[in-house]
Amino acid sequence: MSSRSDGRLRGEARPIAIVYEKLDRADGSASFAFGSTKALASVSGPIEVRLAAEQPSKATFEVSVRPLSGVPGTESKALSASLRALLAPALLLSRNPRTLVQLVVQSLAPSRQTGTGTGLFGAPLMAAMVNAATLALLNAGSVPMAGVVCAVAVARVRPSAAGVSSPALVLDPTEDELAASDGGGCFAFIFAAHPTPEQSDAQFGSRLVWTDWRVTGGGTDVDELARAKLLARSGVEHVWQQVKESVGRAAVVPAPGLSQKPSKTAKTEDVEMKVDEEEEDDDAKMEI
Amino acid sequence: MRPPSPSIPEKEFLFSTLEKSLRLDGRGLIEMRPLELTFGEELGHVDCTLGKTRVLAQVDAKMVRPLPERPFEGIISVHSEISPMASPEYESTGRPSDEEVALSRMLDKVIRRSDAVDREALCILAGQRVWHLRLTIHCLSDAGNLLDCACMAGMVALRHFRRPDVEVIGDEVTVHPPSSRAPVPLSLHHTPFSLTFALFAPSSSHTNISSQTAPITLLDPSLLEQRLASGTLSLALNAQRELCVVHKAGGVPLTPEEVLSAVNIAVQKAKELEKMVDARVREDWAMKKIEVR
Fold first, then answer.
1. Above 90 in pLDDT, residue B218?
2. Longest dimension (CA), chain B
3. What ipTM does the predicted assembly reach?
4. Mutate which: A14, A21, A22, A25, vs B, most B CBs within 10 A
């Protein structure tokens, strides 16, 4: 079993770092990182919308992607269109018509990681952006959501580089691995309760919602795509666990000096006494 | 929809506290918010927070052909677009807002026109190869005084950045990667800092105060103070008492003495900032173990 240059297993992602950035002017903000591939997202909404963008039956969802260096160009426009397509199904936009949900995603990955041209280099960053956007939406808590979208990148490393006879699929490739691969893409899954035709209740699980799997050399077939999807699904479970844990950790800390906690025993005693009184009154009322 | 802030109670409260020389966040009139600099993994990547205002700056460099009219100088380009992340008021449509224009003009004056970076030191091979430095400013959060924070972030990023070491023998140019030779810091002539004062006209309702009273000046205004100010004065100067930019566009008039007293306050602050920035940059370089000796 050939291991990777940084000692990870084929289906192991880089260490995930989630920070709720608490940006002052945004409703929700968070950053997500796979190792050093980091993205920061902020969400504001539902807020006032420009008359030109107003929609009578649902909220307008605008996504804007900013690269770390230089001004946003066509690649940023393409990324923001993709992000919009894959996040829109997770949001219940019809609950807030005539408003705006504004998502801004800032890439914090060094430019040599994003590269130009092939777009293969962009897969881990795309995955980080999707996860950051999801975290920002969860942090805002103001946009109703149908599910949680998490994403992870998969690459197909060339045989000579990986040391195996056939091309190997690896999860969350580093830039060196991407340079040695001839195929790859980002897989985005939505975690929600999906109604199934067989059972009456909805079953909670992940479903693939978007992918940009492509190969630049050699061929590919449906089986390879299925294997890549399977690898991605197992990887994205880990991402989703991290996202869930972080939401628990991000509980609001009360302001210092505000909470003068009374002794807990006294409080519960009071409550118990009141409950007893109420019960007595009820009983008294019942026995007319 | 909700009318824009500030509301009348906010306005009245601010003015009444200012008359008592108090600020809403408890600072002194010429006290700045706490400044924090966080450096990233890459050289030239810095996250600058001034209270709740947060700006990210990033520098990268590549070798290009110089401009034909300036064959001995490198090129510096500054990109600063304010995204809706900074505040929902900034729209993501192509047209730059007034604040964006003001910010990019000030950054241009402070960083490029003030000759802070030695452009001739960026020349590799005269007429053929020079360094093109690209400074990108990302405004992450606008909680007042975005201008000072952005200029600070830009200058600190340029201080922190190190370019690869280049060897020129005849016409051959060899670029040494950071692993073999330590990268070289940029040659900076000086480090200008931008300091903004918000001006509040004295209230004319008090009969015993003559109309010649000086306006109240607050250093490093918060968002509410900036919105309610009746004028701002931005000074860009360095610790050597040299003025780079004096920007006062309209607003309540100031006498020359008042401007000079603001300059004196700003010089004090610039000296403190210079010491703090120098210490932080050296600390980060030492931590990154750049110079392998």
1. yes
2. 78
3. 0.89
4. A25
Residue B83 and residue A64: Cβ atoms within 8 Å? yes
B87: which chain A residues are within 8 Å (Cβ-Cβ)?
Answer: 25
At A220-247, the pLDDT tens digits run 889 999 999 999 999 999 999 999 999 9
Alpha carbons within 13 angstroms on the beta-carbon side of residue A189 total 22
| Nearest Cα to Cα of residue B53 among B222, B198, B199 | B222
Which of B1, B42, B136 is the closest to A70 by Cβ? B136
Distance between CA atoms of residues A16 and A172, nearest Å: 11
Nearest-5° Cα angle at B34, B32 to B40: 130
pTM given for the model: 0.87
Residue A261 has pLDDT above 90, yes or no: no
Helices (H), B57-212: 98-107, 146-160
Would you state the structure tokens that stand for residue A199, as one six-digit string?
Answer: 């059972």
CATH 2.60.40.1120 assigned to B8-287: no
The rounded distance, in Å, linking the Cα atoms of A185 and A215 is 9
> Going by C-beta distance under 8 Å and a sequence separation of 6 or more, which residues neighbour residue A257?
none
Q: Do B142 and A110 touch (CB under 8 A)?
A: no
pLDDT at position A288 over 50:
no
> In this predicted model, what pLDDT tens digit does every residue of B13-38 receive, in sequence order?
999 999 999 999 999 999 999 999 99
Question: Residues B19, B23, B25, CA angle at the centre, nearest 5°?
Answer: 160
B→A interface, C-beta within 8 Å: 1-2, 40-42, 45, 52-54, 56, 58, 60, 79, 81, 83-88, 91-92, 134, 136, 138, 140-143
Edge-to-edge order in the sheet of strand A16-19: A16-19, A28-34, A37-47, A100-107, A60-66
The 8-class DSSP code of residue A89 comes to: G
CA-nearest residue of chain A to B52?
A24
Is residue A91 within 8 Å of residue A46, measured between CB atoms? no
Contacts of A127 (CB under 8 A, 6+ apart): A34, A151, A152, A153, A172, A186, A187, A188
Cis status of the peptide bond prior to B185, with omega within 30 of 0? no
Nearest CB to B136 within list A26, A62, A68: A68
Q: How many CB atoms lie within 10 A of CB A259?
A: 8
Give me the amino acid identity at A184: G
CB-CB neighbours of A45 under 10 Å: 26
Secondary structure (DSSP) of A138-185: HHH--S-BS-EEEEEEEEEE-HHHHTSSS-EEEES--HHHHHTEEEEE
What is the Cα Rg of chain B in Å?
21
Average pLDDT of the residues in A39-46: 95
Predicted local confidence at residue A71, as pLDDT? 86
- Residues of chain A positioned with their CB less than 8 A from the CB of B40: 108
Spans of all domains in chain B:
8-287
